[in-house]
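Here is an idea for our session: we take a single protein and study its fold together. Once you have written the record down, we can walk along the chain together.
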Amino acid sequence: MAPVLEVKNLRKRYGAQTALADVSLELGEGEVLALLGDNGAGKSTLIKILSGVVAHDGGEILVDGDEVHIDSPKHARELGIETVYQDLALFDNTHAVGNFYAGREQTRPKWLGAFGLVDDKGMRKETEELLERLQVNIPPQSEVGLMSGGQRQAVAVARAIAFGKRIVILDEPTSALGARESGNVLRLIKEAPEQGVSVIVISHNLEHVMEVADRAVVLRQGKYIGETEPTAENHEQLVGMIVGSEQAGKAA
């Protein structure tokens, strides 16, 4: 499986605190990779670097084999990297279409004599087609602020899959969702590779990780600890890597 993303010896410090210490990992083409670790493990710092929110102090990032210097969220999106944070960053006072195309509105072709006018009809049609393809049962014109938590999460994930040409990063995508709504979001994650998208998912829910992820990488205190296939047989091993082997017995 050829890597679409490579992180080599990534380092980040905040004053005297080391957030990442020579972290390396790969994300394969069409792979769902789980990024695991307790609070303070370095997961958030890593995804902020990959999303262009935070600059790293050392190391390399390669996308499709080419070294890149991601200096802004806009640059990350240009590279095909979309990130969905826990707060979702949705506009509650508009509909799914408005949220899908916020900041990337389509305009009508010049030859129609409407240069500069937003193509509402075209954006609505494309949103409807995408939601149908992803089997997301949400009326495109429904106001996002009136949706349930699961519907809002589905809008955010569907938007990321639509515009993340190469990589989608999801931060705790099923947090605070019920079983049914979590199931819908997990289905979107599992089907993302069919849309040509590789996924990095951060989650504290190992059951959900085992359902969707092909591989799990564990960070602890800013360091790469190890990786394994997230299966029921490896559950105890994953817990041990996350909390530290000396505490694994207490956590299990």
Notes: The radius of gyration is 19 Å. The first strand starts at residue 3 and ends at 14. The beta strands are 3-14, 17-28, 32-36, 58-63, 66-67, 81-84, 167-171, 198-202, 215-220, 223-228. Residues 246-252 have pLDDT under 50 and may be disordered.
